[in-house]
Amino acid sequence: MSTRIWSPRTACALVVLLTSGFALYAADRPEAPIVVEEIVAKINGDIVTRGDIEKARATTEKEMRQAGLAGPALQQQLDKVMADELERQIDKLLLVQKAKELDINVEADLTREIAQIQSESKIADPDKFHDFVREQTGMSYEDFRQMRKNLLLTDRVVSEEVWRNIIIPDADIQKYYDAHKADFVRKESVTLREILVSTGDGKPDTVAAAEKKANQLLTRARAGVDKFSDLARQYSDDASATDDGMLPPFEKGKLNKAIEDVVFKHDKGYVTDLIQIRGIGFEFFKVEDHTPAGQASLDDVKGQITNVLTRPIADPKLRSYLTTLRQNAFLQIKPGYVDTGAAPGKDTAWKDPAQLMPETIKKSEVANQRHFKKLLGVIPYGYTGQKPASAAAPPAETPVQQAPPTNNSDGSPR
């Protein structure tokens, strides 16, 4: 009876054999097509994807559920709103593109807006604020910032290209004010600047140092040698420092009670004592404006009335402006998707066939596609989901001439 020895070399050889066999078998079986993303519209150099539409649908549905809609009523309203989603996506891209063409810069406005949001959140630490944005919006801080930037850009284009050309006569403004005086009865409010000195880790020594620094800044602010806005910009630990410590107007009942009980007792120009906010720091405020409750004057609300009267005129003008942008744009829309704001007579048929056919989209080729994207700095059109009528025959391969075998010295083949 023979004894079989299972050596490591034998095991290694078997593994190599099995691996090679599996590789040959896998090579004969084409991989299933992989769709990375589906492009549904091309607008000049930008695209709208199915993912963009689906994300908007999910967000809209969430908002409707929070508003109390459910069941068939929810589905009916959601379908109605989403019927115009591609129109909204195209409108947004066209306006952002126009902003770039007009060289509109909103970075300063964006910085102030983000700083205001951070100030209202009372989160001074940047990383924690980014986490807060992600929790509240469901998007990364970078995506949130870009979204807000695009909104500012579109607002500026609409303001400069549409609203600026609309003039409301003073007589119409006076007439509206007289007919709607009850709408302009104001609640008491204050506008403040703040300086915050953070207590950091909350240790006794840190708290004591923060209180000492805050008192020194308070003395300088009250002396009037330094402008309150300059001190806030240089020394405040709150995000409002980027806007010279300025906060938005607060109606009575909207502020922390410890702050409200002080600032609503004083007029414009008053600088408060130090107020300690547990877990945050020491802060003090300057009253920039104190608006009493009562009837607002026409001058105070003239801008507000102008906006109310301008909108019914501006909306159709904006639609006409967006139609013109569509007429002048390179615009292609995939079959099955509808732009409800389409320009009459504009040919938006999907003419460019897919560059990657279903039978060629393998994992390796997707990787190559990503490599070319990075190398060339362009976005490929991607798979459209339409299979070609007939696949082109593969090119004939030219046989490679094999070199003659070399023999050993005794004449036998090597």
Describe, in plain words, how this protein is organized in 3D.
This protein is α+β, with helices and mostly antiparallel strands. Among the domains are: 40-172 and 297-327, Triger factor/SurA peptide-binding fold (Orthogonal Bundle), CATH 1.10.4030.10; 187-294, Chitinase A, domain 3 (Roll), CATH 3.10.50.40. 49% of the residues lie in helices and 10% in strands. The protein has a 4-stranded antiparallel beta sheet, with helices on both faces. A 3-stranded antiparallel beta sheet has the order 2-1-9. It has a two-stranded antiparallel ribbon with strand order 3-8. The chain is globular. The model is unreliable at 1-27, 355-363 and 370-405 (pLDDT under 50).
Topology summary:
Blueprint: H1 8-27, E1 39-43, E2 46-49, H2 50-66, H3 71-82, H4 85-101, H5 107-121, H6 126-137, H7 141-161, H8 170-179, E3 185-186, E4 189-198, H9 204-223, H10 228-235, E5 250-251, H11 257-263, E6 275-277, E7 281-291, E8 294-295, H12 298-327, E9 331-333, H13 363-376
Antiparallel strand pairs: 1-2, 1-9, 3-8, 4-5, 4-7, 6-7
Helix pairs in contact: 2-3, 4-7, 5-7, 8-12
Structural category is: alpha+beta
Major beta sheet, specifics? 4 strands, antiparallel
User: What spatial order of strands do you see in the largest sheet?
Assistant: 5-4-7-6
Q: Write down the CATH topology of the domain at 40-172 and 297-327.
A: Triger factor/SurA peptide-binding fold
Unreliable segments of 5+ consecutive residues: 1-27, 355-363, 370-405
What CATH first level of the domain at 40-172 and 297-327 would be assigned?
Mainly Alpha
CATH superfamily of the domain at 40-172 and 297-327: Porin chaperone SurA, peptide-binding domain
Radius of gyration: 33 Å
In one word, what is the shape? globular
Order of helices and strands: HEEHHHHHHHEEHHEHEEEHEH
First-to-last CA distance:
38 Å
Q: How many β-strands, per DSSP? A: 9
Q: How large a portion of the residues is in β-strands, by DSSP E?
A: 5-15%
Q: What's the helical proportion of residues?
A: 40-55%
Count of helix runs: 13
Mean pLDDT: 81
CATH architecture level-2 label of the domain at 40-172 and 297-327? Orthogonal Bundle
